[in-house]
Amino acid sequence: MTLENINPNVYTFNILVDAFCKEGKVKEVQNVLALMVKEGIKPDVVTYNSLMDGYCLVNEVNKVNDIFKTIVKRGVTPNVWTYTIMINGFCKIKMVDKAISLFKEMHCRKIIPDTITYSSLIDGLCKLVRISNALELVVEMCDRALTMLSKINDIGCIPNAPTYEIIIISLFEYDENDKAEKLLHEMIMRGLL
Question: Residue ranges of the domains in the chain?
């Protein structure tokens, strides 16, 4: 690329890092990172997330913790995906308590878990037959959805039928029937059904 007088940027390098990691070639990524540094390009959260995911794919989850410490030390702000990768990785090696600790840390840092984060942790808990803990997370997830729906209403936005349907279906799937019926009634009152 530099021969054509086109200089790679962080996005270019992130594509390379991600491709190597998805192929399980995390050792080769060290060369890419060295080239980034040589070119004066700082790795960003996407770079580190790809690297962490790569180590999880090759079952070297212990290295993920080291990368996380590097991220923090270098002033790169971890995001929801950073935590999700770590939570998923620790769940895969049956270190669910470490995953739960990271999940709690997310809350402390005001990083909102997404569906993938919840699903990874719920899956890890279920595989260790910690069903009651998994169900607590499901209820928390449903409550978050209801809170968000309430906030949407509070600011004057009227949710459409598909928004209601997604939440209602999820509530029924997780035996939150009373909450689902309440939303169904709300849909009818608003003329959406």
Answer: 1-76, 79-129, 138-193
